């Protein structure tokens, strides 16, 4: 909380839950002033931003964000790991909301890029726009990648490569998140394997070969079995060997 107060001027955060939903309440240290930003946010549904209402209370600025049905990024990855595809999906949502913020003449530096204030529902991320202060968004995103490193699934090569590249590339001065995203997408594209042309498998031919091999084996076994018999008959053959009476057998050989 000290870091959020130092970076954004947020001194207190709370989630108020009721039967009708949940609201994230952020309290800033400065006095509330209704300017162009809050009017734009209250009168327009900016895609990717959480609906917000602002007010002054005891000399402080208070902003309430509708978070019903959503969970914070911090809660989502408290136990779970973050895949490379999930990191890319987050970046895609972030780039989308930056574009929306710019188109409404708002300042991207006012987006709270802290896991406790980024919310997820049904595969889509929503962000808090903080009118009371800001931080350079590229520095803030680099700090967020440190959380990506903590959430990395070190059993998944894609998760490791993605978090490492994100953290390394965002350390560079004037980095481009669009270029980093393109590089990550190319890295995650599976290379087309060289597929060998498979020859058709003829089961009939296989069966024929198997039968021939089986037949040859039987013939070899039969041949071996009859060798002693032929030798025996050859030794005891007499001139009239075709007649059974012409065969002389010594009893000792039986």
Automatic annotation (TrEMBL):
Record domain DUF6382: where: 16-175
Record-linked InterPro entries: DUF6382
Organism superkingdom: Bacteria
Protein name: DUF6382 domain-containing protein
Species whose genome carries this gene: Mordavella massiliensis
